[in-house]
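Expect sequence, tokenised fold; for instance:
***
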Amino acid sequence: MTLFHAILLGFIQGAAEFLPISSSGHLAIFQNILNIEEAGMVFDVMLHLGTLLAIFVAFWQDIKKLVVEGVFIIRDFVMNIVIFFRNIGKRNKDVVPYRKVVNSSYRKFVMLVIVSTIPTAVIGILLKDIVSAASTSLIVTGICLLVTGVLLIISDVSGKGNKRPRHIKYYEAGIVGVVQGLATLPGISRSGSTITAGLLCGFEKKFAVKYSFIMSIPAVLGAVVLEFKDFTSLSISGTEMLNYCIGTLVAAIVGYICIKTMLVVIRGKKYKYFAYYCFLIGAFSIIWELV
């Protein structure tokens, strides 16, 4: 892969991962049109790590608090197990009270992300072969982009939500997780579909964006871990690795800019413009494949 191709794909990944236009769909389209050989597993993983870095930089304070509260959740859960065994055989007046595990908004945030991650992981594993096959067809990609456009139109006409973590039900987090799992199909925007699902569940707009981006962290890390076992069997030249690193840096920088852009876009009814773009590029993909 040339340096130009690495920079181009890094730019596409960074922009399309956070703007609601599908990074996987655009990568498939540009690789086909420009006759770029398949980027390969290593570069794909590195691009996702680049956008993951953008999320960490943009939401560092939130992520830090979530990690700390996640550790406290584990601590209190273990302590409750200890308390359970200590209470065995004790009279009611001597029973030690259990600790409340989910006792703050950030702890509820952590639990919501965990609940969303479970269906995402299950669906991602079940659809792995289907997604790989679908990625080779621009017709499938085009159809999925049209679906993304419809979802964005729906998000623009959805009512104004006001739910923050304390008021969000776990089943609603599960619904958003299912949508994220289905968004592994090329052309279905992960951010666009999950934000839309959040808005339809009544999430407050700004939180819907934050939740969409932060909930992608365990999904991306899980995918990296699954693919990491095959890294040692791959042969990559020093020049290729340098190009990969530059592409990753481009994805991180562009991704950070697009995260900030999305936080502005979500405040107004501006998703329809991305929907029109998805309709256009989706139709183009289908026509390109057919002719």
In short: Residues 161 and 247 are 37 Å apart (CA to CA). The chain has one domain: 3-290.
